């Protein structure tokens, strides 16, 4: 948008320097810029709505394959509790043994799913860190090999020179 505005200003300045120009071209360009700005604003709003919806869905699905199962289980538990509340069965002080076992099992399953999701997230995070470290080590490893070769050649050249100097020294001593 800013580029188009600058281009419009540039064209207006150029038209003025030439001694005027058809105002229709300038008007058309201004209309086009305003239309593009309006379209851009509409698209920005639509994008914002989409992102907010996606964020809500991601929070609901817990970002894991077990996420929808977790939601179904909690929905099922809520329905079960509602049916117990609305049923004609009189509740005598506590829940029957069978129902309490079911709720305990459901609570344990729910806890297990939540724990599994957090462990999966941690494992994915650790895998990403490991990959980063491995790539860093590979980069450093390549550099060390290159340095070894470079300085190995230099060391070999220095040893050759040393031998040449020794030979010259022995030749000078013999004279």
The coarse silhouette is flat
Instruction: Tell me the β content.
Output: under 5%
Percentage of helical residues? over 70%
Task: Return the average pLDDT rounded to an integer.
Answer: 73
What's the β-strand tally?
0
SSE topology string: HHHH
Low-confidence stretches: 67-72, 84-95
Question: Major sheet: size, sense and barrel closure?
Answer: none
Distance between the termini: 87 Å
Count, helices? 4
Radius of gyration: 38 Å
* SS-based class: mainly alpha
Keywords: Coiled coil
Coiled coil: 116-143
InterPro entries: Kinesin-like_fam (IPR027640)
Pfam family, one: KIF21A_4th
Defining key terms:
175 residues; mainly alpha; flat; coiled coil; Kinesin-like_fam
Q: What this model shows, in words?
A:
This protein is mainly alpha-helical. The chain has a domain of about 60 residues. The chain contains four helices and no strands. The longest helix is centred in the C-terminal third of the chain and has 78 residues. It is flat, with a radius of gyration of 38 Å. The N and C termini lie far apart (about 85 Å).
Topology:
Blueprint: H1 2-17, H2 23-61, H3 67-86, H4 97-174
Helix pairs in contact: 1-2, 3-4
Sum this structure up briefly:
The protein has helices at 2-17, 23-61, 67-86, 97-174. With 175 residues, the chain is mainly α.
